[in-house]
């Protein structure tokens, strides 16, 4: 039986969700799929059905906090795992958020959960935290308004010293607009989970392989689905960068997820 195309490469999952209960299946899945490391976001903030509804309808979102502390405690001692702090911009960043950020490898925004726009001053306060700590910022964009890819790109242009990651291939599924909307904003990377392989291929051509990163969206998507998609969509010489090299580069200031 031939090996998977990604075997022999360092594969780093730029975006998965976990909590204490999900860690054993996550680690088992990583081992089975030869994933060396992963960057995690606290899971279970809202039920899947509610999240699906808000993503489809564009809102309204609600004021809810993720249990970042529990996830940080759960991954303590797991050198292959690091956490993106899942922030709640219903309030501006405070001292407690700063202390959390000091223990994390990045900042996660979820407009579809919270309903707070990318250009809201409270969102900017978390970007300021990221800038001070040289952390990347990840967001899952929604629709065409305040939560959109276009507004996220504007946020990135206002903060050229911060690396931003556009989650889930833009709006997910068949979104060819997203790569065009971030094309001229070079501090935005494109994370691939949820997009068609055609969309990933287009993103590599539009942005260059150095701006594309692999994410699984575990447990809502099995990493093998996403890895197989990338093996089909990305030219073989570009796979090492997309599958791990690019996310390693932008998280190097706060290493995390070490092998």
How would you describe what is shown here?
The model has no long low-confidence stretch (mean pLDDT 94). With 259 residues, the chain is an alpha/beta fold. The protein is globular and about 50 Å long. It has a single domain, classed as Metal-dependent hydrolases (TIM Barrel). It starts with 11 loop residues before the first strand and ends in a 9-residue tail after the last helix. Strand 1, helix 1 and strand 2 form a beta-alpha-beta unit. The longest helix has 13 residues. It contains 11 helices and 8 strands. It has an 8-stranded parallel sheet.
Key structural traits:
single chain, alpha/beta, TIM Barrel, 8-stranded parallel β-sheet, 11 helices
Topology:
Blueprint: E1 12-18, H1 23-32, E2 37-42, H2 48-57, H3 68-75, E3 81-86, H4 95-101, E4 106-109, H5 111-114, H6 121-133, E5 137-139, H7 149-158, E6 164-166, H8 177-182, E7 188-191, H9 197-207, E8 212-213, H10 223-233, H11 239-250
Parallel strand pairs: 1-2, 2-3, 3-4, 4-5, 5-6, 6-7, 7-8
Helix pairs in contact: 9-10
Q: Could you give a short description of this structure?
A:
The protein has 259 residues and is an alpha/beta fold. The protein has eleven helices and eight strands.
Provide the helix percentage. Answer: 25-40%
Q: Report the β-strand fraction as a percent range.
A: 5-15%
Mean pLDDT: 94
Q: Which regions have little confidence, pLDDT < 50, spanning 5+ residues?
A: none
The strands making up the biggest β-sheet line up spatially as: 1-2-3-4-5-6-7-8
CATH superfamily: Metal-dependent hydrolases
H/E element sequence? EHEHHEHEHHEHEHEHEHH
Radius of gyration: 17 Å
Largest sheet: 8 strands, parallel
Distance between the termini: 27 Å
- Number of discrete helical segments: 11
Q: What is the third-level CATH name, the topology? A: TIM Barrel
Q: What's the β-strand tally?
A: 8
The domain count comes to 1
Structural class: alpha/beta
Shape: globular
Top-tier CATH class: Alpha Beta
CATH architecture: Alpha-Beta Barrel
